[in-house]
Design goal:
Layout lengths: L1 E10 L2 E11 L4 E5 L6 H8 L7 E6 L2 E2 L5 H7 L3 E4 L11 H12 L5 H14 L16 H13 L5 E5 L7 H18 L2 E6 L2 H7 L2 E6 L2 E6 L1 H5 L4 H12 L2
Parallel strand pairs: 3-8, 3-9, 6-7, 7-8
Antiparallel strand pairs: 1-2, 1-4, 4-5, 9-10
Length: 246
């Protein structure tokens, strides 16, 4: 579904990506794991076409994102749903209005009834009941906000869902809640998921495959167990403290 090939990106003298290559198979969850400044966010921005590489390519469902402009790029981005780090819900909108927002922006002819029915259907997918429709984000728990954010991301039924640091700043119970949400989304919807994270425990719970990004390059890549056995010095150091606690 996603194929990144020999991706390079610099900002002035700062080389952020150094030949990154990876493949995300359809219907799987792929985690990009790394510390601050490793290049994770820059990589995701290339995947959705917000940045253009100095060298290399990004193909999504066979389409070369790096070569698109204007309406073609806008249309290609409809393949993605995005769950942001802090949910990024509109504070002044209800749950109904937040989840319906992408549909309303795309098709102004949709009736209020149609929008409501579609929103309710997606809320059910993420285990939220109809009674949350009139609530505002401030009235929801952190875990519920994440589920509303996912419902909004999948309202237009994209084949790919991207998660940007989905567990940052969350307590352990809410983190488990979000991990479960990511796994359920894959199982119930069959979506392909890419997760950007520095949370080792969460990454190893949700990933089918993962890559450890270090200094703009892939230090290790494979199944969780394959990455755990990596002999790369940075990977061993990055994972060691967490695994010593297990």
């Amino acid at each position: 579904m996603i194929e990144v090939t020999d991706l390079h990106k610099s900002f002035g003298a700062n080389q952020v990506l150094r030949g990154v290559s990876l493949r995300v198979e359809k219907g799987t969850t792929f985690v990009i794991l790394g510390g601050s400044g490793s290049g994770k966010t820059v990589l995701m921005k290339h995947v959705i076409g917000l940045l253009r590489p100095d060298k290399g390519s990004v193909r999504v469902a066979g389409v070369d994102i790096t070569g698109l402009e204007g309406k073609e790029l806008t249309e290609a981005r409809r393949m993605f749903g995005m769950v942001f780090q802090k949910s990024a819900l509109f504070d002044s909108m209800t749950v109904l209005e937040n989840v319906a927002f992408p549909l309303r922006e795309k098709d102004r002819s949709l009736s209020t009834r149609d929008l409501r029915e579609r929103v309710i259907a997606k809320l059910k997918v993420v285990d939220l009941a109809e009674n949350v429709l009139p609530l505002y984000p401030s009235e929801l728990s952190g875990g519920m906000q994440k589920r509303v954010a996912l419902a909004r991301a999948i309202i237009h039924e994209p084949p790919v869902v991207l998660y940007d640091e989905p567990t940052t700043g969350l307590d352990p119970i809410t983190t488990d809640y979000v991990d479960e949400m990511i796994v359920q989304a894959k199982e119930r919807l069959g979506v392909t998921s890419m997760v950007i994270s520095h949370d080792i425990a969460s990454s190893f719970k949700v990933a089918d495959r993962l890559a450890v990004l270090y200094d703009g390059a892939i230090a290790a890549q494979g199944t969780p167990e394959e990455v755990r056995r990596s002999e790369h010095p940075h990977v061993k150091k990055f994972l060691s403290l967490w695994f010593e606690k297990q």
